[in-house]
Amino acid sequence: MVALENLYMRLLLLITLLLFAGRTTGQTAGFKEPTPKEEFIIELANECFNTNTYSPSKRLAIYPFNKARSIKLISFKEDEFIPVQKKIVDYSKVLESHVLGADETNELTKILYNMGYNPHIKPIFRIESNYKCYEPRNGILFLDAAGKAFEFIEICFECHRTKASSNKVIQGTFCGQKISLIKDFFHRAGIQYGTSSRYGKTTYAEILKLDSVEMLQALQEKLEDKVINGDNVEQLNAMEKKLMILLNSRALYRADIQNSGFATFYFKYTGGFYPQTAALLAEIGATETLAAFKSSLQQWPGGIVPSDRPARLKLLLKIADKAVPKWKDIEKGLYTYKMDTNAQVLTCKEDLDGLILKYIMAHKNDLQD
Asked: How far apart, in Å, are the Cα atoms of 88 and each of 147, 150, 172, 281, 366?
């Protein structure tokens, strides 16, 4: 479902961008793919950016925080919707709850009101999440002195959607990672239901019992939840960091930006770990993938990938239009092609997932929750 929704969103964004471009340039509206540089700008324009617009006191003055005597995070069964009727909370339907302290309230308001779009990037086009599914499992209750929920925000983390109890509730700008940041906030506050792995397994012992495909996905989800777009890598232990790097190397086979795995890898925080990625690919014997990684360096001036993301993105925008086509050609060499019943079938020359699984099982005792 999520994969299909993401595909829908990308197609909608592309179509709208093209029509918009046709209108603004005076050209006949048509289908012209954005250049690699333009697509990077689209991605950047939708990322969250810490604007630091509001001080803590100004954030607390925003409704409904300014009227709340207490603020509570809750979880509930997805077929129930938030258990609030006429401001009365039915706690028999609440699975978990956590009352926010002053520091936590400050952190939540910072996420809601100081995380927005980067004001320094002029977007070609910007679009917010538009998932059609909606099965909420979590919510934020704003309680008065009598314990009544005078306002609330209902949240479906899986579908990236929220609903407020009234249009007076100010939720802030929902940039690309906003929902993920709120989800992590809930999880760190002890709310498990609705915030844990969609595979139903959260500990390493549980995850390692899954089948191979689900195991890799659950492990990557667990580690991504910890690092939050690369901002908290220092929280990982040595083995977790190695595993995160290896799992992210699979981006080469899961192209996103401009259908290039390298473009995706270098654009995200993962690009800052090029040397470590190459070293680990060599360690697990991923010779085909490693050769492709080394070839991709030819598009970077001096063969050096900046580890600092702002510096890397600045340079990436300069080289994108020439580099991305070259990277796509390199990636084609990782597959064998054959026709099967009038359809072209692609087969990976190297089983990177299998090599990573072998490495995981050899070091599973080093994975500690």
From this structure: 8, 9, 25, 56, 48
Per residue in 27-48, pLDDT (tens digit) is 445 557 789 998 898 889 889 9
CA dist list (Å): 274 to 77, 151, 262, 308 = 42, 47, 11, 11
pLDDT digits (tens, 9 = 90+) for 169-218: 999 999 988 998 999 899 899 999 998 776 666 789 999 999 999 999 99
Rg of the chain over Cα atoms, rounded to whole angstroms, equals 23
What residues have CB less than 8 Å from 178, skipping those under 6 apart?
48, 111, 115, 172
Q: Environment class of residue 163 by beta-carbon count within 10 Å: exposed (0-12), middle (13-18) or buried (19+)?
A: middle
Domain boundaries, the chain: 198-369
Q: What is the DSSP string of 236-265?
A: S-HHHHHHHHHHHGGGGGS--GGG-HHHHH
Could you tell me which residues come within 8 angstroms of residue 345 by beta carbon, excluding any fewer than 6 positions away? 337, 338, 339
Please state the pTM of the whole predicted model.
0.80
**What's phi and psi for 72, nearest 5 deg?**
-130, 135
